[in-house]
């Protein structure tokens, strides 16, 4: 019979390098203790890297430029967690500003609004991902991911602190949003944001 470790490794290799994997994904490969031991061995021999408790990474390695391990972005990790939990997420706060190019600040703890379970994932060295549950149907009713991100960023700045430069950056990228999506999503915005975006 194929060992638990080999079952897990075969499935991970099938996903390809650069994949974020969860110990819970492999519950059908053996007993809980066998799965835990298999992941411990795969981590010990550096086949997998541990990102957080129960969250591992099958490393993508750059041999051409000699950069070594190419680590996943915070978004990659957060999206993988959301996919596992069958949830929708959107960056908020300072990270939303950074994603839109409105700020160069990258927070140590990145916050996402989620339609799923609230949780905090520790990433080591004081870093983490915080998922805050939202019961508001409006947030995830948006058709455009960009406009959903704009909503979060502009709410973080506030109506009295947003600058002309920030507005220009936002509006410049609105040209990439299909008119049908814009017309649908702008109606879901607070009035002050809607008024700014409609002046384009």
Short description:
This protein is α+β, with helices and mostly antiparallel strands. The protein has helices at residues 4-15, 32-44, 74-84, 93-99, 145-157, 164-173, 179-185, 191-198; strands at residues 19-22, 49-52, 55-58, 60-62, 68-70, 89-91, 109-114, 119-124, 127-133. It has a four-stranded mixed beta sheet with strand order 6-7-9-8. Strands 1-3-2 form a three-stranded antiparallel beta sheet, with helices on both faces.
Question: Roughly how many Å apart are the termini?
Answer: 65 Å
Q: What is the helix fraction of residues, given as a range?
A: 40-55%
Structural class: alpha+beta
Query: Low-confidence runs (pLDDT<50, min 5 residues)?
Result: none
What is the domain total for the residues? Answer: 2
Element string (H = helix, E = strand)? HEHEEEEHEHEEEHHHH
Number of beta-strand segments = 9
Structure characterization notes:
- By secondary structure, this protein is an alpha+beta fold.
- The protein folds into 2 domains: 4-70; 74-198, no CATH class.
- The chain is built from 8 helices and 9 strands.
- It has helices at 4-15, 32-44, 74-84, 93-99, 145-157, 164-173, 179-185, 191-198; strands at residues 19-22, 49-52, 55-58, 60-62, 68-70, 89-91, 109-114, 119-124, 127-133.
- The protein has a 4-stranded mixed sheet with strand order 6-7-9-8. A 3-stranded antiparallel sheet has the order 1-3-2, with helices on both faces. A two-stranded antiparallel sheet has the order 4-5.
- A hairpin with a 2-residue loop joins β2 and β3 (55-58).
């Amino acid at each position: 019979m194929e060992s638990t470790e080999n079952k897990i490794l075969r499935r991970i290799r099938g996903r390809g390098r650069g994949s974020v994997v969860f110990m819970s994904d492999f519950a059908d490969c053996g007993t809980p203790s066998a799965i835990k031991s298999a992941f411990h061995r795969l981590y010990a021999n550096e086949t997998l890297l541990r990102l957080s408790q129960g969250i591992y990474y099958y490393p993508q390695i750059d041999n051409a430029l000699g950069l070594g391990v190419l680590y996943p972005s915070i978004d990659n990790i957060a999206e993988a967690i959301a996919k596992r939990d069958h949830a929708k997420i959107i960056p908020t706060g300072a990270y939303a500003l950074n994603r839109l190019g409105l700020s160069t600040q990258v927070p140590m703890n990145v916050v996402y609004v989620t339609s799923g379970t609230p949780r905090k994932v520790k990433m080591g060295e004081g870093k983490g991902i915080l998922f805050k549950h939202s019961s508001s149907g409006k947030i995830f009713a948006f058709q455009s991911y960009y406009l959903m991100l704009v909503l979060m960023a502009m709410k973080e700045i506030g109506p009295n602190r947003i600058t002309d430069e920030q507005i220009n950056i936002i509006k410049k990228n609105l040209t990439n949003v299909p008119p049908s999506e814009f017309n649908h999503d702008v109606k879901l915005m607070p009035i002050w944001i809607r008024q700014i975006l409609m002046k384009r």
